[in-house]
Amino acid sequence: MSEKTRSKKGGDKALTANRLTDGVAIFLATDGSWVEDAREARVEGDDAGHAALEAAGAEAEAAGIAVGPYLIDVARDADGAVHPTRNREVIRARGPSTHPHHGKQAEGLSGQEAA
Amino acid sequence: MALIKNGRLTADRWHLYEDDAPLQPDIPAIVSLARFKAERDALLRAHADLGVRLEPGETPDAIADDLDRLSVIALNFPSFTDGRAYSYARLLRERHGYKGEVRAVGNVLRDQYLFMARAGFDAFEVKEGESAEAFLAATKAVTNAYQRATDTRRPIWELRGAQPAIAAAAE
Amino acid sequence: MYRYDEFDATFVHERVEQFRDQVARRLSGELTEEEFKPLRLMNGLYLQLHAYMLRVAIPYGTLSGTQMRRLAHIARTYDKGFGHFTTRQNIQYNWPTLEDAPRILEELAEVEMHAIQTSGNCIRNTTADPYAGAIKDEVEDPRIASEVIRQWSSLHPEFSFLPRKFKIAVTGTTHDRAAVKVHDIGLVIKRNAAGEVGFEVLVGGGQGRTPMIAKTIRDFLPKQYLLSYLEAILRVYNMLGRRDNKYKARIKILVHETGIEELSRLVEAEWESLSRETTVDLPRAEYERIAAYFEPPDLAPAEASSAAFEAAQQEDRDFRHWVRTNVKEHKVDGYAVVDISLKPIGGVPGDATADQMDLVADLAERYSQDELRVTHGQNLVLAHVAKDDLHALFKELAGAGLATANSRLVSDIIACPGLDYCALANARSIPIAQDISRRFDSLDRQFDIGPLEIKISGCINACGHHHVGHIGILGVDRKGTEYYQLTLGGRADENAAIGKILGPAFDADGVVDAVETIVDTYLEERRGPDETFLDAVERLGFQPFKDRLYPQKQAAA
């Protein structure tokens, strides 16, 4: 895990990676599938949950689905939707801030509601 | 570990010794540079077939005077990203005129065979299960090369029909 | 420009097939990401924030109309309809898939292009003066040496796993537009006392975490020995460059720690030995074969001044402004070198849409000998335009948003992709460039300010060249918030200098105000319009700027 992707210790976390075939940012969902929308990410709040996420990531990497899985800090908004908290991950979940018509934000994914 | 030599999978008759392992006489032995330096005379007496393994940072200069008595020089790649051994292999061949086996050991991957072969390696310690076909395919993936190296390929500029420049410089 | 022969074509085609096999092995699970990563990087394929990113080499920044049209086609077919021109004269696509990458490379190979060695710890695309072959006082077209280096360095068996990446730049004039002093090797083509052509060889320049200005390792290298001398430098670097710390692995650190005299001694000794052992240098016939592709175009003689051109400037104010900033003198009377700005006010520096690329391809064919250049300033150049054609050209460019009159002015900003795309970035760069450009949108104000280069990087790797910006901006992350540090006094020309940090960083809004404050201070303090920003900074020092930027500190002191 690089310095850029290190999340802080403890707290609510989700698992993200890039999809092998096209590189798109993906998130582990509650049903064990990988989704493009961060709002559907499975969230775990304790060490055992984080370990379970990481184990699922290692499995997906070995299976050739995901590349470079890592944990990100997340929070829930008033509606209960999940969103990343760090700037880098907010941009990753949405798309480039300079091209609002490109990336997930253009496809109705991953929380355009927050500024 | 399997060994590919001259493009073929072959049985490796050489034994790589750890520094503290006792040597068995008459088995072809590859030892570290440190051990070679410490036990040079005894090693050369006991082993008709002796090889030395160089790590990155240990240049061929360290064994230049003994090269004609060494049958194998193993150049280690602790990681395939450490490219010092490519220069060492060329220096062994081109500067020291070494004619014995130059063996790539360590993290030796298929996609590096071509570079290694061009730099003067002629033996490759590879993952169990690696095939000679894969090796040959990898070394033939690119037919021609732009630059002269240690292999027998003629560089593209020469194939284009030009004659080599007079090899004079720095006079 | 250079055209592939059968050897070049076969080489690039085989390289595509090799990569196709590697991608297939990765997708089948035979290769792990760890094993595959260096292979994809050596074909220019990165994994960034949102997707893969493909960096395509534009050797020494020169393109034909056909090649540019193919770049447009790739943007449209495999990407989202645009591309990003970089400070290494390359183009990057931000959204290709891994599955499409071999097909994209195949499409490139068909027009004599590739992505070989646009990443990885190898010798990267050699860059050159974007005005090569078109301006006065050039000793030799630097693209000849660049092409010679491109061929020699392609899949070099000894130098594909260097301690770190390795960048070479070449200029053929004393006024340096290729930033040779901030490259691992800089080559300045010159004549010796006997009138022979050769190179001054500089080593150890670079930006990143430890910016350094290159030092001269050899004052004059006869040109026939270029490749053997480069091979000697690279061999010494490959064996002695640090591999224990990637931030200390560039050759600049070796130069710094070894000393230029000792390194020079090692290189000269290596050169002498290898020259006895092997033949690296090209025979004269091959050098001349390559040089022939860069013969100056056969431009019909024309009057130095054109009545139509002068009249159009009188009538069309926008054209007059554009000529003033974006049109440079050509070595042949009656012709001009044209900068096409990829920096519209509020735009993304270096971005071009597929439609813009297509148009520029057409214009190059019609007006500029079917030849285009990409500059390290992230703009395009038409190098051989008849003055009589300038007005028609201008109107076509203007219709596509490509006629912004701001070459080397305050809104001609270099910016890396930053945190909007880049997995390494700490902060966004592009929005800062856009905000600064909007703040200075008035052309009269830009003319008044004069030449001022702003360069923005989103992290210390300095892809946005902030160290050599007249005003440099470096994005940093402080507890999840983007901050921007300002430097002053950097420059990338023949008098290259590293800018120095001015003071505490600003947030995203504050940094735009701060830049404006710096510019206003300059305008107030300068001796007159003839004293450029850089000259004023040199004369005044940092204090007047600090006083205005950090008044509370002043009050406390």
TrEMBL record, chain A:
Q: What Pfam families does the annotation carry? A: DUF2849
Enumerate the residue ranges of region (Disordered): 83-115
Bias (Basic and acidic residues): 83-92
Task: Name it.
Answer: DUF2849 domain-containing protein
Report the source organism. Marivibrio halodurans
Automatic annotation (TrEMBL), chain B:
Q: What is this protein called?
A: DUF934 domain-containing protein
Which Pfam families does the entry link to?
Answer: DUF934
The record, for InterPro entries, names: UCP030820
Q: Which domain of life is it from?
A: Bacteria
Provenance organism: Marivibrio halodurans
UniProtKB/TrEMBL annotation, chain C:
- Which keywords describe this protein according to UniProt? 4Fe-4S, Heme, Iron, Iron-sulfur, Metal-binding, Oxidoreductase
Record carries keyword DNA repair:
no
Listed SUPFAM superfamilies: Nitrite and sulphite reductase 4Fe-4S domain-like, Nitrite/Sulfite reductase N-terminal domain-like
Q: Which residues form the Nitrite/Sulfite reductase ferredoxin-like domain?
A: 52-111, 348-398
Indicate the segments forming the Nitrite/sulphite reductase 4Fe-4S domain, all copies: 119-272, 412-548
**Record's superkingdom?**
Bacteria
Keyword check for Kinase: no
**What GO terms are given for molecular function?**
4 iron, 4 sulfur cluster binding; heme binding; metal ion binding; oxidoreductase activity
The name under which this protein is listed is Nitrite/sulfite reductase
Name its species.
Marivibrio halodurans
